[in-house]
Amino acid sequence: MSAGKRFCEAVRRERPLQVVGVIHAFAAKLAESAGFRAVYVSGAGVANAAFGKPDLGLTTLDQVAEEVRRISSVTRLPVLVDIDTGWGRDLFSGRTMKLMHRAGAAAVQLEDQVDMKRCGHRPGKHLVPVADMVKRIRAAVKSRPIRDMGVMARTDAAAVEGLDAAMYRAQQYVQAGADMIFAEALGSLSAYKKFCQAVKVPVLANMTEFGKTPMLSVKEFRSAGVRLVLYPLSAFRAMNSAAQEVYQVIRSQGTQKSLLKKMQTRKELYRLLDYQKAERTMDRRLGSKR
């Protein structure tokens, strides 16, 4: 079964489907071990974690594709990939979709901001006209190497033009061929319910922390008709907080002894990596060469 079909199956089986963000390959293994059915590669996550840059459209197609390749190579979970605005000429030439497919993406998420985009929960966002976003979607749909590769259209219009405008845009994006809609930065559960009633394809809610959307549960999103709930950087934020504490303690105390109970053990790390199996394989290879 293709990655795209596995993603569609996950959306069908789990309502709403919880999609969790992973910032590197090992995080994907952790997500899989926790029982998630799909993972997400965030544009902000790649920019922040891999390059130490803000989420302002500063990473390249090749950089994001390489992160996707690393992640998809270690998990069977389908990967939804944030491709921001598609990288312009690469999107329209077909290179964006081709590289994402080769990297292992099950589906991509394409947004309607201008190329110098901003985080969806920051002020000062600017959108392209509806017609321009329709062209982006049509280019992605037309150039995807296989039909199973999903195209999700994200609209940031709710925070810029209002909810009605966001619903109108979403309807136009569906007509252009979008398989799913990412409704960014809606401010209430009632707004999600209204949005889902107006849009006849699966709708994703971004349950990011410290943003414009209140902290809502899976049960609440289900009641509103939301089909996917995204947690794009939850683990990343927790990892950062933990790492900062570790660095501060080691620096101030001269030892990490007080932190050992908070750490993943070597045994658990090796279990997730299947370390012993890899060692046995290496030993057999070395033995055959002696």
TrEMBL record:
Keywords: Lyase, Magnesium, Metal-binding. It catalyses: (2S,3R)-3-hydroxybutane-1,2,3-tricarboxylate = pyruvate + succinate. Pfam families: PEP_mutase. The keyword Magnesium applies. PROSITE patterns: ISOCITRATE_LYASE. Pathway: Organic acid metabolism; propanoate degradation. Belongs to the isocitrate lyase/PEP mutase superfamily. Methylisocitrate lyase family. This is Methylisocitrate lyase. It comes from Verrucomicrobia subdivision 6 bacterium BACL9 MAG-120507-bin52.
